[in-house]
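Appendix B. Extra example for self-study. Work through it before the problem class; the solution is given directly after the inputs so you can check yourself.
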Amino acid sequence: MGEDLKAADVVAAARLAGVTLDGQQQNIFAEQLPALLSAVRSLSVRQQTEPMLTFAPAREAKR
Amino acid sequence: MHDDLAYLGIADLAKRYRRREISPVEVTRAALDRIGQMESKLNAYTLVTAERALEDAKKAENRIADGDAPLLCGIPFSMKDIFDVEGLPLTCASNVLRGYVSTRTAFVAERLFAAGAVFVGKNNLLEFAYAETHPDFGPTPNPWNLERSTAGSSSGSAASVAAGQVYFSIGTDTGGSVRLPASFCGLVGIKPTYGLVSRSGLVSLSWSCDNAGPLTRTVEDAAIVLQVMAGHDPSDPTSADRPPADFVGAIGRPVRGLRAGLVAREFEEHVHPDVRRAALEAVQVLRSLGVEVVEVTTPPFEQAVTALLTVVLVDAAAFHQPWMEERPDGYSPGLLERRLKLGRLIPAVDYVHAQRFRREFQDGIARVLHDVDLLLTPTSPFPAHALTEEVPGRDFTPLVRKTAPFNLSGFPALSVSCGFSADGLPIGLQLIGRAFAEDTLLLVAHAYEQATEWHTRRPPAI
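Solution. Structure tokens for the complete assembly:
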């Protein structure tokens, strides 16, 4: 998915996800999804960063 | 109930019980009367448990007479209808759960019941604590102005406490759903450190962002309630196995010498002028009390909101997947079509990217909090918006901009009333602390509250 997402792309993604969308919702998501994904993908993350949330003592000690 | 009694602090009411000036049964009956009188306008409850409440009040009366009752014994309270209470319906303000009766009791509720607090009912909320009102449950208006929003999602909880129906209520906060209603309704609201308060027995919106927290009229009340709520729960794998701080004991200690970080950008960008004025005046009060206030730069909040919304969209879609397939008609069209289905379409790699950003954002906030004891921002960028819009423009990014970053990062945050807009709507100041340092937030908020008179104001009669 990219900036030029079309309603047909949304339908294909929805089918893969097992979701049924009416025509109006396809058009709305075709606008919303690129903006959301573009914002997420612009978040800067270092290569070594792992996804986790913890206040484990070992992490606290490293700070 | 006379207004003066309805708006008493918890410790004051507990003293009156012990002096036998008034009984828990009388106070509970009066609370139920106030709920009954206002409900047609306020719509703050999905369920009122009058009979059970009066029985519990009688038990509390006997327990107090026996001599060793906890402070919360006999104090009427409510909970957002997202917590399980065995034998009672659980709706989450949605038709998806119509007819369901809980078979267990949430850990937090168990603790409050064990302390003798008198449960009077379950509060209305935004459907499943998300950003939509189910039309069959309807919105809860703001007691300060019935044409304005309570924000949400803990809307009924905030309205009920602000209207003097109960002495405290328990809400949940996944992006600001305790702190924003607190700010809009002139209350104190706490999102505790992730792991301080058990999530067992509450219906999830996003497992790693959900927190249960108290809504109260004063900081002291918040400390008293949080003290009972906090503590290790082996049935919640994310519950912290460490003793909570002494929240009540923290109240009243000196604040001189504490360092607060003013997140200057969050007082300037897209902030209503009345909010900016009130929040900056509050900062001046803190300075006058001896708190050293310095400007700090944090990682950008708007990026944290993007990550939080991504995590919540996907977590909620994952949690709701079975119901989306089995009972789609139970949802409001807004929640199902606009939120849950959207969450199903976000690619896994982008979800993981948001979670990795989360790790870095948490580290960034921790670095700032290494040099200061707490951070300061307004709670909401604007006072209560029109009731007809759950979220202005259906985009809740601006509304949660200052609160959601601390669901993403897990740090504790508290909203305290810090003034009013020109048209008489409450405004909140947000204090953010180090992990498990709720005692510092309560200490500073209490000192501020005692130096001002905002907490003594009451909404107009309903």
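Self-check: The first helix of chain B runs from residue 3 to 6. If your reasoning did not lead you there, revisit section 3.
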